[in-house]
Amino acid sequence: MNGTDEERLLALAQAWADAIVANDVRAIGRYMTDDWVLVDQDGIGTREKFLSLVASGDLTHEMMRTVEGTARVRVYGDTAVLTARVVNTAHYRGQAFHADEWTTDVYLRTPTGWLCTHSHVTPAA
């Protein structure tokens, strides 16, 4: 594996998490393809829905971090998969929650850099 791609993807994932914690809609959107989706226990969510929840203030994050030693990156040409255990604290429509999840993000190499096209979260046991 190309260590440079791995390092870039890990740094990109951290910068994206930082944008989410900052609740910065524009910054968050810069890390996603236009057709990005999130698959979770509620089904499939779209980029537009996620960003609108953040923009409205209905969804805010206070903390998001990768559990040390859990990140795994694999690059397959112009596609990469990053899997890690991530913990976060947030508020959704006024209700506080803490999430401990295994996440899988699929990235595509574009002319402007890596962008996430698919995210999947599964609660950690």
Query: In angstroms, what is the radius of gyration?
Result: 14 Å
How would you classify the quaternary structure?
Answer: single chain
Largest sheet: 7 strands, mixed
Mean pLDDT: 96
The CATH level-2 architecture is identified as Roll
**What's the N-to-C terminus distance?**
30 Å
The CATH class, by name, is: Alpha Beta
The helical percent reads: 25-40%
Strand content: over 45%
H/E element sequence: HHEEHEEEEE
Number of domains: 1
CATH topology, by name, is Nuclear Transport Factor 2, Chain: A
- So what's the overall shape? globular
Q: List the uncertain runs.
A: none
Structural class: alpha+beta
Give the strand tally: 7
Summarize the entry for a quick read:
It comes from Streptomyces hazeniae. This protein is α+β, with helices and mostly antiparallel strands.
Can you walk me through this structure?
- Pfam families: DUF4440.
- This is Nuclear transport factor 2 family protein.
- By secondary structure, the protein is an alpha+beta fold.
- It has one domain: Nuclear Transport Factor 2, Chain: A (Roll).
- The chain has helices at residues 3-21, 25-29, 47-56, and strands at 32-40, 43-46, 59-66, 72-76, 79-92, 95-110, 113-123.
- Strands 1, 2, 3, 4, 5, 6 and 7 form a seven-stranded mixed β-sheet that branches.
- A hairpin with a 2-residue loop joins strand 5 (79-92) and strand 6.
